[in-house]
Structure formats: C-alpha cells, structure tokens
User: Which sequence fits this backbone?
C-alpha cells in the first residue's frame, strides 16, 4: 500500500534519529568547548539508528509504527520511497558502516581539530543520504539521494584542508562525480521519455506492455549505470577511487569503501532487478523489452575484477592498494548481479556483509599503523608483527586472507555463494575468470602479510601499539570474520529473507 | 569412542593450539612440551584406530554425520575407510616426531607450534572429511600455516619459496571449488561424497570444450589441483624450493603427508565420482605422466650429485617426485596389485622420506650446511648416525626386506598388466635411484674424514634425534617383512574402488558403500 507524507513520517524514525543527531551536533558545536564530545554524540546517534533498524527488522518497523504497512512492505511519501526487507537490510549495513567509521574517527589522529563538529555532522548526513538510497523507488528520489551522498562525501574527503593530497582527492572526486551524475540524470531523462514516468513500478509496467525502442533503452541504461557504477567503483567509472581512497582521511576511506559502495549496490539492484526485469519461476529473473543488459554487466564484472587486481599488484601505498582491491571486489560482487537470479541477489547481499567486516578491518589496521608511525606505505608495515604490533598484524592477516577468499574465513563463504550462483546458472567462464582473479589477488594480499611477518624490522620504524579503543573494534571485526567463516547460517538467512523486493 | 575418535583426532591439536596461544611467550620450553603433549593423544588414538578398524568391509567406519549449514546441505561428515585409514595413521605417527624435530626452534616459538598444531588438525581433517565442502575447508586450511611455517622459520630464500607454494596450491584448489559446485548442482544439492559417487552418469556425454565432455573437464580440473600437491610434472617446481627453504620438521610434513594428499584426493574424489573419465584419462595423466615423473625426478636427483650447490635436501626433494611417480603409475593400472601397491607406497614413502629429511636435518644442525661434497668419511665420525642413514637410504633404494621394495614391486607387477613401456621405465629407474643414493653415501660417509670437521662440532646423533628416527626405522623394517599390517587395512576398500571404476566401462554401477 502507498502512504501519504504524514503517515510515512513515522516509518522514518531511524532517519529521524540521524537528523536529530545532526542538529544536536551542529548546535552543540557552537556551545561545547571539548570538541571530542561531538564524536560521541554522533556515535550515539548512529548506534541508535542501528539499533532501530537492525534490532527491530522489518517486523519491528511495523510493530512500532503501526500496522499500516503491509507484510511485504509499503510505499512511502506517495511512492517516492519504499520500505521492505531489502531496504532494511541495507540500512543495517549502512548504519553499521557509520558506526564503524565514527568509532574509527574517534581513534584517529587525522580527524582531531577544531572542525570536528562539521566532520561528524556531515558524516551522519552522508549516512542519512545512503539510507534514502536504500529505499528510493523513484528515479528522482534515487538521483537526489545519490547527489546528497556525493556532496557530503566530497566535503569529507577534503576534510584535511591543509593536506594537498586530501584537497586534490576532493577535487577529483567532485569532478568525476559531477560528470557521472550528470550522465546519469541524462539517462534518466531518456527513460522518462521512453516510458513517460519516473516511478519504478510504472516504468516496469510500461516496459512490460509497450515495446520501447531497444537501442534507446540500452543507451539510457548505460548512461544511468555511469552514475551507479561510479558509486560502486566499477570499471570504467572507477578512476576516482584510488586517488580519493588515498587522499581521504582513513576513516572516511573506510566509510566510502563499505558504506558508499553498499548504498550504490542498493540503488543498482533495486533499479535493475524489479524495474528492468521480471521475476519468473524458481527464483530466475528475465529481462524486459529484450535489452540484454546482463551481458553488458558480465563484461563489466570481468573487466572490473581483472583490472582492479592487476593494478593492485604493484601498489606501494596500502590505502591505494586497498582501493584497487575494493574495485576488484565490486567486480566479484557484480558476478551475483549478472546471473539474474534470487541466488545471485542473496549472494551479493551476503558478500556485502562480509566485505564490510574485512574491508573496514583492513582500513582500521592501516589507521592504527598510521596513527603510530604516520606511514601508510607498504614499507611502513615492515616487520609489524615483530615491533609490538603483533595483534594488528594478525588481525590484518585475517582480513587479507579473508579478502582473498581462503577458508575458514568469512570472505571464503562470501565468494562461495557468489560462485554458487554463477555455477548454478552455468556461467562457467565467468566462474573461471573469477577464480583466476582470486589467485592473482592472493599475490598482493600476501605481499602485505609477507611485509608484516616475514620481513624483519630495520629498526628505524617506530613501535606500534594498540589502544583499547581501536583494539576493541579490531577484535570485534576480526572475531566476526573468523566466526562467520565457521558458522554463517544466521547471516545467510538474513540475506535470504532480505532478497525480496516489494513490488506493490 | 567409536564415534568421537576421528573428531578427537581433528580437534585435540586445535585445543593444543588454543592452549599454546594462552601461554606466556617467554615459556619456550613449556610451549614445546605442551605441543608434544597434544600430539601424543592422537598417536594413542591412532593405535586404537589401527586395532579396532574392521578390515573386512569397504564401508566407512567411525562415522559422524551432523548438519552444519542445514539450508545448503553442508554437513560435518567424517569417517575413514581403507583408502584413508593408512594416511590418518601416518599423520598421527609423524606429528609427534616432527614436534621433536622442531625442538631447536628458537624464534617465535609460540607461533611456530601453534601453527604446527593447526596444520596437524587440517591434515587429519582432509583425510577424514567425507563431505566435499568440509574437505575443501580443511584442504585450504593447510595453506595458511604452511605459508607461515616456511616463510618465517625457513632458510634464506624462504619468502620466495613460501609464496610460490601458496600460489601454486591456491591455483589448484580454486579449480576444485568450481568442480565441487558443479557436482553439487548435478546431484540433489549435496556435498556428501558418498552420494556424489553415484552422479557422474547424469552428465551429458556431449563435448563442452575442446572436444572434452563435462566429466572429463571436471576430472582434469580436479587433477590439476591434486597434481600440484603430488607434485606431478609440470606442476612440481614449487617442491624443490619449498623443501630447500623449509625447516626440517616442515619438510617432513610436506613430503611425508602433504604430497600424499594429491594421490589420496584422486582416489577419494576423481575415481569414485568420475569413474568413466578416470578410465579414459588415467592412462595419460597418471600412467604416462607417472612414468615420466619417476624418471624425471630421478634424473633431477642424480643431477644434484654433480651440479652446484650439491644440496642434499634438494636431492631428497627430487627423489620424492620420483617416488610419487610410482604411486601414480600404480593407481593408473586398475589392477588389485597396482592400486594396493600405490597406497602402500604412499605410506612407505611417507615414512622413508620422513627419515631422509630428518637425517639431512641432523647433519645440517651440526654443520650448518648440507653440501654433499662438504663431507666425507662421516662413518668414522658418527657411526650410529651412519647406521640409521644406511637403513633409510637402502629403504629408499627399494632394497628387499625393507618396506618400499614391497610396494614398488606391487606397483610394477600391477602396471605391467596394462602398460608395458611405462613399467619398464619405472623398473629401470631403480638403477638411477641406486645411483644417486649410493653416490651420496660414498661422497659423504665413506673415505677419510675431512680435516675441517674440528670446527663443525660433529657430535654423534643424540637421544632426541634417535627418538625421532628409530620408531620410523622400526616401521620400515616391519613393513618390509610383514606388509600385511598395512595392506590388510587397504585391500577391501581399494578392490571395491577398483571394481567401481572398471564397472563404469561396462556401464554397470556398483555402490561404493
């Protein structure tokens, strides 16, 4: 069912909590002298939003906000947004990303300073935008949400105003982002021209009934994908990622890598699955209007993972290396996208969860090292295990092997489900490209492990110590990576439940 | 006991690992003792297993089967039959010996023994797992500790050796992952290896790629994975590097147990799951390649006597390639003698090569080098050591009365019935084997002692080292005169497996269990 503006508001209480926290931070910024407290307010807000989204799930939403919303979901704000299991799933991941990023920021040396209020306020604002991305059900809403996230991300990237690299990254991000979103909205206008509507369900209905010009539709889709692909850092819209990841403060890099990417995938999946295709028997989906976009995505997926992995091989800066690795992982995740099946969807959802754990963890270790020694290059990791940093080194090894996809770590299970979906639909060559890429990726991940464990410190590197604040998050993330590799049934059930779109 | 014995074998070392991680890192001696204490119970359990194993049935025994991830039919399913029992025993036998061999480790002792115990658990797990998914998990789980054990505690080029080992093995195992998923979707969504054994007939017989059918492609994919471990030419190049750089105990594990996983995997997965493809492809991939492995390995080993750096460990490493060739040749024969001989050879090579590496380790610990031409007349300096060495070398040579003789003869007898030329090659290579081993003995042990021995502190082999070598020597001797101690364990299961594969040719299915 579709709710009007006033009725919908009550369903937005996690977003409401975030907005409230933003307002409190900005006001408190004027009053409080100890700016450190602002981070705690942000952490509280994000945690509350997380509790509201995850603790309660979709069922909880209905329980709290009344039963106006149907069993499977409902439209909000006159069909501008939709609330369903899928949206709730992403809101959980996004809230987790925000909590993780804020927790990291509190322990980061880069974030200290008088402008913390703005930093945390904008970080929460970005999260708010991502929440909207997860539930956008109208091209206009999708565009607005994406732009909201982009604009806040530019600012966050350039937070260290006096750092040239940070400024350069922000500018590059802005220019690439501007081009991508301009391309995207141009594509959206084509879709509007072809179908006469911006509403997801109506576009879907129009495509099912009418016979739009295939070429025009294909062009429109490619143009729109420029915007979505830019958010998930898929080739050829990935160029910003290495520079931005390199230049941004590390908590923001982590936030962009896990949060922004997940939100991009949410937009991508909701637009391409229920809008451009039709659910068929046995969890298979079929494309509409004869536009074979999965074929295109197949190529993009293969190129993205291959290019990401090959480019990562020779990186000397760990943040940059992880940037390329995150491009490669966008390619892996897209494997679940091209098979057009429910299996693929749940594999992607599951993968985004484990990707969150291991990537956030990896960036956290980079931050711990940078905090202590001020270095982010590979040489700065030299002999890390032998100069006081044994625990971060072990955690990093867990994250890196998990990113490679080795059992018994969560990353293996994630990849397993992706390959599961791919092999099930008989995309054998995609599977082979995927596994060869895993082998290539092993080389550069192990290079970091080698530097940390096998190389001896030269003596000039500083000691690395782990404080309780960062250590607790690190323990949580590495523990979860390990445990999810051994027992992952609850998470896969959650992904299973969430891989359903509300179609009205 | 009946049901928990295999799980105990797997999880006691893990418990040991956790215990060691909790110990303070200064307590180096304590760590070593604890590690030893956690490998002895599995040895006792192994003996119990040996005594209680029912030798008259091909069925799985000591089975535990509990759901793990129910929604995807993933199970914790362990059990042993004749194919795996000897390997489980071998692992349980070698692990405490390797702990003893690692007594001299000084750097990061805690990490070393924790990783070693993890490796121990993973190895036993591979041999016990009867669920493909579980098998894969344990298979990959071996990689991580192995990488660190070679990479941190190895020789000068350890980093190169470790990453090479890692990349080769990973390349193989990801192929297995794809094959595993294809099997899963071919059955009614099951990873149960006993169920999968009846599914190959569901594949269509049409060529898919390069004129090969789906089962053949799967067979080759799985074979590449296992061939890396065996290691079969041309996937063998990681082995000499890994062996030369690895610390002694790790070399022992590598040659004694890890290499066997290659041939074990082929018997456990390729044979029963793809019997038809096995019959079609085994003559090339196992028969011909096996014979090539035998002679190639022997020639490379022989070359170590003449080519710099004349490394004794490298010689032993190449001899492993040669000896594993006999296993491949025997497996490919599809005769009772051949296949029994192959698995017996796996066990015998595991013990003998373990001895050889330990012997190299003993001299390396004293002289800090292992150049074949850097010694001479050791027999008069270290007579006891020379005696133990002679036993191992003659066993490796295949001298009658010692264990390897029986298995090699069985392999050749079996293979002769099917392949003439490869068998002739295999038999003739015995001369090369004798050549490089005798040459080494002559150069290192006979003649006059060198003058620079005074600086090397060449003391006689000590009690700890004898504790490692004598038990293996006893096993080698016993199996030389009474091979039935192991053969009886294998026979029924292997004959049944052989029947399954041969039946596939006639299109009749025989139930595995």
Assistant:
């Amino acid at each position: 069912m579709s709710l009007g503006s006033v009725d919908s508001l009550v369903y937005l209480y996690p977003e409401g909590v975030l907005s409230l926290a933003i307002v409190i931070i900005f006001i408190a910024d004027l009053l409080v002298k100890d700016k450190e407290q602002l981070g705690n307010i942000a952490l509280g807000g994000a945690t509350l939003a997380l509790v509201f989204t995850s603790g309660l799930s979709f069922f909880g939403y209905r329980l709290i906000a009344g039963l106006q919303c149907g069993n499977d979901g409902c439209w909000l704000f006159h069909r501008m947004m939709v609330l369903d299991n899928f949206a709730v799933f992403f809101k959980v991941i996004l809230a987790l990303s925000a909590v993780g990023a804020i927790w990291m920021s509190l322990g980061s040396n880069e974030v200290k300073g008088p402008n913390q209020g703005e930093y945390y306020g904008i970080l929460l604002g970005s999260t708010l935008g991502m929440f909207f991305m997860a539930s956008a059900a109208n091209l206009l809403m999708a565009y607005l949400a994406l732009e909201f996230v982009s604009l806040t991300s530019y600012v966050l990237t350039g937070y260290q105003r006096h750092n040239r690299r940070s400024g350069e990254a922000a500018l590059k991000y802005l220019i690439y982002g501007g081009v991508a979103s301009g391309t995207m909205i141009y594509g959206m206008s084509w879709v509007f021209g072809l179908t006469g509507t911006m509403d997801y369900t109506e576009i879907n209905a129009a495509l099912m009934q009418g016979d739009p010009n295939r070429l025009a539709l294909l062009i429109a889709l490619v143009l729109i994908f420029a915007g979505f692909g830019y958010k998930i850092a898929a080739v050829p819209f990935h160029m910003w990622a290495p520079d931005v990841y390199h230049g941004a403060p590390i908590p923001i890099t982590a936030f962009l890598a896990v949060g922004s990417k997940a939100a991009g995938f949410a937009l991508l999946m909701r637009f391409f699955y229920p809008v451009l295709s039709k659910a068929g028997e046995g969890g298979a989906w079929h494309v509409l209007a004869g536009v074979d976009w999965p074929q295109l995505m197949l190529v993009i997926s293969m190129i993205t993972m291959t290019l990401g992995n090959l480019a990562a091989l020779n990186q000397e800066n760990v943040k940059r290396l992880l940037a390329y690795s995150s491009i490669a992982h966008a390619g892996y995740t897209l494997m679940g996208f091209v098979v057009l099946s429910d299996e693929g969807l749940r594999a992607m959802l599951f993968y985004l969860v484990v990707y969150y754990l291991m990537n956030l963890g990896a960036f956290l270790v980079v931050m711990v090292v940078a905090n202590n020694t001020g270095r982010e290059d590979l040489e700065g990791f030299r002999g890390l295990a032998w100069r006081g940093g044994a625990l971060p080194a072990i955690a990093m090894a867990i994250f890196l092997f998990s990113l490679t996809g080795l059992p018994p770590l969560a990353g293996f299970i994630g990849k397993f489900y992706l390959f599961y979906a791919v092999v099930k639909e008989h995309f054998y060559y995609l599977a082979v490209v995927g596994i060869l890429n895993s082998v290539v990726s092993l080389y550069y991940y192990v290079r970091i492990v080698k530097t940390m464990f096998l190389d001896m410190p030269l003596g000039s590197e500083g000691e690395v110590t782990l404080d309780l604040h960062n250590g607790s998050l690190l323990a949580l993330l590495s523990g979860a990576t390990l445990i999810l590799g051994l027992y992952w049934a609850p998470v896969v059930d959650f992904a299973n439940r969430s891989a359903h779109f509300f179609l009205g | 006991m009946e049901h928990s014995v295999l799980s105990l074998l797997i999880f006691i070392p893990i418990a040991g690992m956790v215990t060691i991680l909790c110990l303070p890192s200064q307590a180096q001696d304590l760590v070593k003792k604890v590690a030893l204490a956690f490998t002895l119970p599995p040895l006792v359990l192994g003996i119990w297993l040996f005594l209680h194993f029912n030798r008259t049935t091909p069925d799985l025994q000591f089975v535990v089967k509990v759901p793990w991830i129910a929604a995807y039919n993933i199970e914790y399913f362990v059990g042993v039959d004749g194919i795996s029992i000897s390997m489980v025993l071998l692992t349980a036998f070698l692990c405490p010996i390797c702990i003893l061999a690692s007594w001299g480790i000084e750097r990061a002792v805690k990490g070393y023994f924790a990783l070693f115990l993890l490796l121990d658990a993973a190895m036993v797990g591979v041999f016990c797992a009867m669920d493909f998914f579980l098998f894969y998990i344990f298979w990959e789980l071996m990689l991580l500790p192995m990488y660190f054990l070679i990479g941190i505690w190895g020789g000068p080029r350890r980093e190169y050796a470790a990453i090479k080992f890692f990349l080769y093995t990973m390349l193989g195992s990801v192929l297995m992952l794809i094959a595993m998923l294809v099997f899963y979707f071919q059955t009614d969504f099951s990873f149960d290896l006993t169920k999968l054994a009846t599914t190959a007939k569901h594949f269509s017989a049409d060529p898919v790629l390069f004129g090969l059918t789906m089962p053949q492609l799967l067979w080759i994919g799985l074979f590449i994975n296992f061939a890396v471990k065996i290691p079969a030419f041309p996937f063998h190049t990681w082995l000499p590097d890994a062996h030369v750089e690895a610390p002694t105990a790790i070399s022992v594990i590598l040659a004694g147990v890890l290499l066997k996983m290659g041939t074990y995997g082929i018997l456990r997965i390729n044979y029963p799951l793809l019997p038809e493809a096995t019959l079609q492809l085994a003559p090339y991939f196992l028969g011909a390649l096996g014979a090539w492995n035998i002679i190639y390995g022997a020639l490379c080993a022989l070359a170590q006597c003449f080519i710099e750096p004349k490394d004794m460990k490298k010689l032993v490493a190449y001899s492993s390639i040669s000896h594993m060739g006999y296993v491949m040749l025997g497996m490919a024969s599809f005769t009772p003698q051949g296949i029994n001989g192959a698995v017996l050879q796996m066990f015998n090579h595991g013990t003998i090569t373990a001895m050889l590496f330990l012997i190299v380790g003993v001299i390396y610990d004293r002289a800090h080098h292992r150049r074949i031409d850097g010694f001479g007349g050791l027999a008069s300096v270290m007579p006891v050591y020379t005696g133990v060495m002679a036993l191992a070398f003659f066993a490796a040579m295949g001298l009658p009365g010692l264990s390897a003789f029986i298995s090699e003869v069985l392999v050749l007898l079996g293979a002769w019935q099917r392949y003439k030329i490869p068998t002739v090659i295999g038999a003739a290579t015995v001369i090369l084997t004798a050549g490089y081993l005798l040459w080494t003995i002559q150069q290192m042990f006979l003649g006059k002692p060198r003058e620079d021995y005074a600086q090397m502190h060449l003391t006689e082999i000590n009690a700890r080292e004898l504790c490692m070598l004598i038990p293996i020597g006893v096993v080698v001797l016993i199996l030389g005169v009474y091979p039935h101690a192991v053969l009886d364990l294998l026979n029924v299961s292997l004959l049944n497996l052989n029947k399954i594969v041969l039946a596939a040719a006639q299109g009749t299915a025989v139930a595995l269990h």
In short: Residues 274-506 of chain B form one domain. The first strand of chain B starts at residue 61 and ends at 69. Residues 84 and 264 of chain B are 7 Å apart (CA to CA).
